[in-house]
Amino acid sequence: MSELGAVVAVWRREFIVFRREVSRVVSSIVSPLMWLFLFGAGVGGTVEVGGEHYQAFIFPGIVIMATLFTSMFYGVYIIWDRKIDVLKAVLVAPVSRVAIFFGKVLGGCTDALLQAVVLLLVGLFFVSYTPLGLLAAAGIVLLTSIAFVALGLGIGAFFESLEGFQLIGTFVVFPLFFLSGALYRLDQVPGWLRVLSRVDPVTYAVDALRGVLLGLNVFPLSLDVAILAAFAALAVLGGSLSFGRMK
Amino acid sequence: MTAVIRTEKLTRDFGKTRAVDSLDLEVEAGEVFGLLGPNGAGKTTTVGMLTTTVRPTSGTAVVDGHSITKEPGLVRRSVGIVFQELSLDGMLTGRENLELSGQLYGVARAERRRRIAELLELVDLSARADSQVKTYSGGMKRRLELARGLLHRPRVLFMDEPTLGLDPQSREVIWQYIAAMAEAEGTTIVLTTHYMEEAERMCDRIAIIDRGRIIREGTPEALTTALGGDVVRVRAARIDEAALRALPFVSKLQLEPGGATIAMERASVNLPALLAALGPIDAIEVRRPTLNDVFLASTGRHIRDEAATGTWLDDAMRLVVQGDRR
Ligand SMILES: Nc1ncnc2c1ncn2[C@@H]1O[C@H](COP(=O)(O)OP(=O)(O)OP(=O)(O)O)[C@@H](O)[C@H]1O
Ligand SMILES: [Mg+2]
Fold first, then answer.
1. Chain A neighbors of B74, CB-CB under 8 A
2. Cα separation, A139 vs A135, whole angstroms
3. B154 within 8 A of B78, measured Cβ to Cβ
4. Residues 6-65, chain A, touching B (beta carbon < 8 A)
């Protein structure tokens, strides 16, 4: 009972902080919009993909990109929280680490989901989808976000110094994004890239969202969701173990 | 009186460093107990073990009837902690910090509200309760931490250097709040400090700890009285050690660069004889013994070594300067 209370307490704390960090919230929405409008317009002038205008084509990829970045960096942020000892008092309370971990995961998912919903609504300018499509899209975003917040927390729990931020950015987040096919069609790339993209879980998030919003999925939707769910389960398991061991 | 804390050969190593060495101590219910020692003495490590955040290498302790090694969850429920480093959430307001802590400790909503209002009042933060903590001064943060430590009505409140880094006025204010809290709540308090004034002022009983070991234990009065008589510090170019040791009323002699600290009986009567034995001196100070003298007598070192905070040479210099002014 008090474990559940602890999950909610940590979640509430995260949400209060999210509301107060206006600049973070704004930039987390503005930068994907720049990708969409500036990058999308620039490349889109010359390219059409799958019968869709390029901007529409990359739209699902950009939503997943925003979700990936927000989720991962939210998780990794605990390196900083530990540095300034914000977590210390929380960690000595008589509640389990797992409860704190789940509170954090929920906090990160809330941030990522709210941001994705705003992007999805802006997306109505060049993609048309039904309310049901919006719901399905939100579900995919949520699953993606659970996975990457958990992964971020798990990795963040490892690092003691702030260099962890950059390392994770360079060696985890960016490769995951560029290999995912967020910006290009997976069936028209060189073989090596195709192979690499298949082991990137983000690929299936992008594919699923593209399927739901544009009907342009390469894999069956059920496969996308199954792989994503399995990955999320693994990340939650690994993340909570790593978080539990954190000093 | 019953013991709320009892440690048995509590020991912790960090690599080759023995931070806490076979500590045996007892803290009685309702008392304010002080762990006094210099930097690196093992105070924080001891508190860490008693609050289950640091695992003992060997030995154990019982806190409020629960073993720190076998029942850490129950120990956590029984204790409150005020950390040496600030650990408040700067993004949250003072009230939200307390709310979060209350929720984590499972304090029911109505009780939480009441308790938070009461504690904010006690530490005089009601007016600023809804500002973000990052806008608080150091003293205000400390007060909020004290309030947070007490929120769930712990049986034992640990305070690790509660006035570290505060200026003398703020320190005085915190002392008053701690005294008020101890009285209002009847909580057993264990505080660590390396300010001897703090230990003398706040604590019913003190353990002086150095290099992980307890070197003296007792009430502040008993510890200082046990030294016997008065303390004389002299500043002189040369000290004739043999002559001083020959004096029957000198009980301890500690030579230092540029002077000496002497423990002696009945300075009022024996000072002339001491001065005669000393020969020419530059400055002299006669006073009742302090806890620092107790530490000095046992270890040959001062509790605090930083020059700015009053080694005896600074004290002596001050005496000289003051003497000139008079
Ligand atoms: N996590 C750690 N890793 C390695 N050594 C440690 C660790 N924590 C403490 N020590 C060592 O253990 C000894 C005791 O440290 P501790 O922090 O308990 O002292 P303290 O009395 O609280 O000192 P201070 O007055 O400076 O706070 C020191 O030598 C310190 O270097
Ligand atoms: Mg310490």
1. 94
2. 6
3. yes
4. 6, 8-10, 12-13, 16-17, 20-21
Please compute the mean of the pLDDT values over residues B206-232 and round it to a whole number: 88
- pLDDT, tens digit, for every residue of B72-94? 999 999 999 999 888 999 999 99
Average predicted confidence (pLDDT) for chain A:
91
Give the per-residue pLDDT at B1: 58
Average pLDDT, chain B: 87
Å from CA of B212 to ligand 1 middle: 10
Q: What is the DSSP letter of A39?
A: I
- Spacing, Cα B176 to ligand 2 middle (Å): 22
Distance CA A142, CA A138 (A): 6
Cα A246 from Cα A160, distance rounded (Å): 10
Which tokens in the block code for residue B173? 């204010």
- Cβ-based contacts of B103 with chain A (< 8 Å): 5-6, 8-9, 12
Find which of A82, A85, A98 to mutate to test the B interface (most B CBs within 10 Å of its CB): A85
The residue of chain A with its CA nearest to that of B53 is A92
Quote the CA–CA distance of B197 and B193 in Å, as a whole number.
Answer: 9
Strands across the sheet containing B259-264: B250-256, B259-264, B230-235, B283-287
Interface predicted TM-score (ipTM): 0.89
User: Cα(B285)–Cα(B297) distance, rounded to whole angstroms?
Assistant: 17
Pocket mutation for ligand 1, best pick of B10, B11, B14 (most atoms within 8 Å of C-beta): B14
**Residue at token pair 């950390």:** B83
Confidence of residue B144 (pLDDT cuts 50, 70, 90): very high
pLDDT score at A152: 94
Between the two ends of chain B, the Cα-to-Cα distance in Å is: 51
Which residue, among B219, B223, B233, B240, has the nearest Cα to B287 in the 3D structure?
A: B233
Instruction: Name the residue of chain B whose CA is nearest to A95's CA.
Output: B104
- Using a CB-CB distance cutoff of 8 angstroms, which residues of chain B are in contact with residue A89? 81, 83, 87-89, 101, 148
In this prediction, residue B326 carries a pLDDT of 33
